[in-house]
Write a structure and sequence with these properties.
Blueprint lengths: L3 H16 L10 H12 L3 H12 L4 H17 L3 H17 L5 H56 L1
Helix pairs in contact: 2-3, 2-4, 3-4, 4-5, 4-6, 5-6
Length: 159
């Protein structure tokens, strides 16, 4: 009888541990999301992306929305406007379906939206500046070619 008790205890412990959710699927807490933000600050973008993506499958809607906001921030940091827009759209869709009523989440969404708009505006300005510089260089080259042609015409007319 005394040998059965340790065996039952061991089997019970194995059964209970086997029923637990693996650590990679456990609900991310604020420490996990804070760690992901710290990874962004340390320019460990791939690690942060993996942490945020793992948090998307969380049982906590708040943590999932925070993870989407974090992905948006990560893509903005990497100047990937397209992926940042997709992440922000997904964030808004989830927030509309299951609002959390969290003031800090609302402030975060507003700041992400403004940051995305500013990034898009800066990108458009940069593209316009590059186009203007290209056009200016083309006009300069044409001017130089016309000046050389004019110089040759003057030389021919003097002969």
């Amino acid at each position: 009888m005394s040998a059965r008790l340790p065996c039952l205890t061991l089997l019970s412990a194995l059964f209970i541990s086997g029923c637990q959710t693996p650590t990679e699927y456990q609900k991310p807490d604020s420490d996990t999301l804070s760690a992901a933000l710290q990874q962004i600050e340390n320019q460990q973008y791939q690690s942060a992306k993996k942490t945020f993506e793992a948090a998307l499958n969380s049982d906590s809607e708040l943590a999932s929305q925070q993870a989407l906001a974090g992905l948006c921030l990560l893509h903005l940091q990497n100047q990937n406007i397209e992926l940042a827009t997709k992440a922000l759209d997904a964030f808004y869709q989830r927030a509309l379906r299951k609002p959390q009523g969290n003031t800090s989440l609302k402030l975060l969404s507003l700041s992400l939206k403004l940051n995305l708009e500013n990034s898009l505006h800066l990108t458009l300005e940069r593209e316009a500046r590059v186009a203007a510089e290209t056009k200016q260089q083309s006009l300069y080259n044409e001017t130089q070619a016309l000046q050389r042609a004019l110089q040759k015409l003057r030389q021919l007319s003097l002969q």
